[in-house]
Design brief:
Largest sheet: 5 strands, antiparallel
Strand order of the largest sheet: 2-1-8-7-6
Helix content: 25-40%
CATH class: Alpha Beta
CATH superfamily: DD-peptidase/beta-lactamase superfamily
Strand content: 5-15%
Number of helices: 13
Order of helices and strands: HHEEEHHHHHHHEHEHHEEEH
Number of domains: 1
Number of strands: 8
Low-confidence stretches: 1-17
Distance between the termini: 16 Å
Structural class: alpha+beta
Mean pLDDT: 94
CATH topology: Beta-lactamase
């Protein structure tokens, strides 16, 4: 066993099921990308059972470096909403207009909470005026107001089309029903109980310099700006570590009941979009073949535009988290997907 694995995969003296050659190859890919400067910083967390490999790369200050998670925020937002569903303060069948009276008229009257969490609402991914709003530092409340007025792209339930604005409205509903800021609700009801101590919606009081900076142009409204980092966008504004993301992933494989009941958890990672190749649970992506090439059909996960990817294969008790600073469109082909494939083949 290599020194890397002696440090990363100690399991009470039990022989490891993980095939080290695959992990060595995965680590080598990340090392190459960070050594060349193609990726400035990365953090990897791989776990099978009690065996864990956690490591930081490049400019990361260790495996617990904080990254902007981007759309990995979506299943976290969905979990917050489902806490209120379990408490019977919400129902997945509630019309959105019941909780957001300003979201009414035409096909909007047909949109229910379930549609918001399964990418079937007809809302767009981003508002047509998204960039203009960001350039003038619009508050999140204005994004909500615009999302309530923006035209639907199709009749609710008729298609599956990725939509960040649906997640935004789901979070707004949860905020109004809970009677507290959604970021505070997530901290109290989700992050703290799951011991996700370095995770927050928004900056959580930390400085941007205490996080990994995204490899994007320096713009006052961009991913590294104080405005965007603390806007608290529920579709992509969570900050966290690879280890915390792994805790969240693994909770859905073996729920304790501490946050959500097992039946609720199972519904979130089960396909809720029948008849569509794009398979989503509640917040989670569950599309077969959407993760590592050796992952089982029960695998669930998500990726994020800032260059992040995570998944959990409960059949093999194998979880994978890779957080980077290079945008997904650039890092996925040569790094995120190849590393994900190798890790999926390591067990």
């Amino acid at each position: 066993m290599t020194p890397l694995h002696r440090r990363g995969f100690l399991s009470a003296g039990i022989a490891l099921a993980l095939r080290n050659a695959k992990l060595d190859e995965a680590v080598a890919l990340i090392e190459k990308a960070t050594a060349s400067g193609e990726v400035r910083a990365a953090a990897l967390h791989v776990q099978q059972g009690r065996s864990i490999l956690a490591r930081g790369f490049g400019q990361a200050r260790g495996p617990e470096e904080v990254f902007l998670l981007a759309s990995i925020s979506k299943p976290m937002t969905a979990a917050g909403v489902m806490i209120l569903v379990e408490r019977r303060r919400l129902s997945l069948e509630d019309p959105v207009r019941r909780h957001l009276p300003e979201f009414a008229g035409g096909d909007r009257d047909l949109v229910i909470l379930r549609h918001l969490l399964t990418h079937t609402s007809g809302l767009p991914d981003m508002l047509p005026e998204n960039l203009a709003l960001r350039k003038r530092f619009a508050p999140l409340s204005e994004f909500v107001a615009r999302a309530c007025r923006t035209p639907l792209l199709f009749k609710p339930g008729a298609q599956v089309r990725y939509q960040s604005m649906g997640i935004l409205l789901a979070a707004e509903i949860a905020q109004r029903v809970a009677g507290m800021p959604f970021r505070e609700f997530l901290r109290k009801e989700l992050f703290s109980p799951l011991r996700m101590r370095r995770t927050s919606l928004g900056l959580g009081g930390r400085r941007i310099s205490d996080t990994a900076l995204c490899q994007v142009p320096d713009e006052p409204w961009g991913w590294n700006s104080p405005y965007w980092r603390d806007l608290g966008a529920p579709w992509g504004g969570v900050h966290g570590t690879a280890g915390d993301v792994a805790r969240f992933l693994r909770y859905f494989a073996r729920p304790t009941g501490r946050v959500l009941r097992p039946a609720t958890v199972q519904s979130m990672v089960r396909k809720q979009t029948p008849g569509s190749k794009e398979a989503y649970g509640l917040g989670w992506r569950v599309t077969l073949g959407g993760f590592g090439r050796a992952c089982s059909e029960r695998t669930y996960g998500h990726s994020g535009s800032t260059g992040t990817m995570c998944w959990m294969d409960p059949v093999r008790d194998l979880s994978f988290v890779l957080l980077t600073t290079r945008p997904l469109a650039e890092s996925a082909p040569g790094l995120l997907r190849p590393v994900s494939d190798l890790v999926s083949e390591s067990a």
